[in-house]
């Protein structure tokens, strides 16, 4: 789950061919009713598509990006050298609620900033279901694939709409939060709230949140990976790059609202009995951003295929274990 694309990921984005991203598209969902009873007014989801739907309408693959990840960023991680091969597939890359492209605290005209309703991962999935069925006319897709928070949404897709996909591939996601996850993300939220520039969400200019980003960077890799990649004399430079002003950084309230959705996520004790899709679960063993234990336990319960990434990359395996992930996803999508 990434707040903004960290330096290591930004440097690796040209994994796919450096082609121009397909055009940004929007689906107007009108008012979105949330499970809390609140309503997001005038909600739009963004999306981009790669390839074409075949005559049998059987080659659609939905890709769900990370925390505040945008479709324009995500398409750069796909393709023959990316997370999976898009050839012969109709890939729909979704901009989820709260990512700053879809309806979000940062862009709502009538519920701006802290007035934006709190939403859950289940709410995000329901809006995505409406996008696919009402706006794109799909009654079924071949697969749902997600990375990080997108993978957590993929777990929810398995139980909210179990017959909608043939295959589900969550990468570095979780079906529920552990105490470690809650501790990490509440620490991140505390760092945000303690920053005077955040002003409890009532800021006039998007705050830089240096401590928030530094904590994230501390956990994005593993201690072994960071020690190998960064010499002690280079730490100051690494920290400066981590917290440097980024004109493309996600809006702070967008980050917090999606983070709050992640914090409450739990697919439920009866989830395993609902799953119908063929599932391949991919998790880094040493992930310090999303604890892999619940995902791997769920895999055993539903007898899903698994790929456990044993290297020292941690959550950044999407960058440094791309080839292993791609091989696993391409096998799953056959």
Automatic annotation (TrEMBL):
Active-site residues from the entry: 148 (nucleophile), 287, 315
Keyword field contains Signal: yes
Signal peptide: 1-18
Domain AB hydrolase-1: 87-317
Pfam family, one: Abhydrolase_1
Any one GO molecular function term: hydrolase activity
SUPFAM superfamilies (UniProt xref): alpha/beta-Hydrolases
InterPro entries, sorted: AB_hydrolase_1, AB_hydrolase_fold, HAT_MetX-like
Keywords on record: Acyltransferase, Amino-acid biosynthesis, Hydrolase, Methionine biosynthesis, Signal, Transferase
Hydrolase listed as a keyword: yes
GO BP terms, alphabetized: methionine biosynthetic process
Tree of life domain: Bacteria
Protein name: Alpha/beta fold hydrolase
């Amino acid at each position: 789950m990434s707040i903004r694309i960290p330096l290591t990921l930004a440097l690796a984005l040209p994994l796919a061919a450096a082609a121009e991203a397909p055009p940004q598209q929007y689906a107007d969902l009108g008012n979105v009713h949330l499970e809390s009873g609140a309503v997001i007014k005038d909600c739009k989801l963004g999306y981009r598509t790669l390839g074409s739907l075949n005559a049998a309408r059987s080659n659609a693959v939905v890709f769900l990006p990370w925390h505040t990840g945008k479709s324009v960023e995500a398409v750069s991680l796909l393709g023959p050298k990316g997370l999976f091969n898009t050839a012969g597939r109709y890939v729909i890359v979704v901009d989820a609620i709260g990512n700053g492209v879809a309806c979000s605290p940062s862009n709502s005209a009538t519920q701006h900033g802290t007035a934006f309703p709190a939403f859950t991962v289940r709410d995000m999935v329901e809006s995505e279901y409406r996008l696919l069925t009402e706006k794109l006319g799909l009654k079924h897709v071949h697969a749902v694939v997600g990375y990080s928070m997108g993978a957590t949404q993929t777990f929810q897709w398995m139980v909210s709409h179990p017959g909608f996909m043939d295959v589900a591939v969550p990468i570095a996601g979780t079906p529920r939060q552990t105490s470690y996850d809650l501790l990490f993300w509440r620490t991140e939220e505390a760092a945000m709230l303690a920053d005077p520039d955040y002003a409890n969400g009532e800021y006039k200019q998007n705050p830089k949140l240096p401590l928030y980003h530094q904590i994230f960077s501390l956990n994005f890799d593993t201690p072994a990976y960071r020690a190998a990649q960064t010499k002690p004399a280079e730490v100051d430079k690494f920290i400066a790059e981590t917290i440097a002003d980024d004109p493309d950084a996600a809006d702070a309230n967008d980050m917090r609202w999606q983070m709050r959705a992640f914090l409450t996520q739990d697919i439920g004790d009866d989830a395993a009995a609902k799953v119908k899709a063929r599932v391949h679960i991919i998790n880094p063993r040493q992930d310090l951003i999303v604890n892999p234990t619940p995902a791997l336990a769920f895999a055993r319960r539903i007898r899903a295929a698994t790929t456990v990434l044993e290297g020292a990359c941690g959550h950044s395996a999407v960058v440094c274990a791309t080839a292993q992930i791609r091989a696993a996803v391409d096998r799953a999508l056959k």
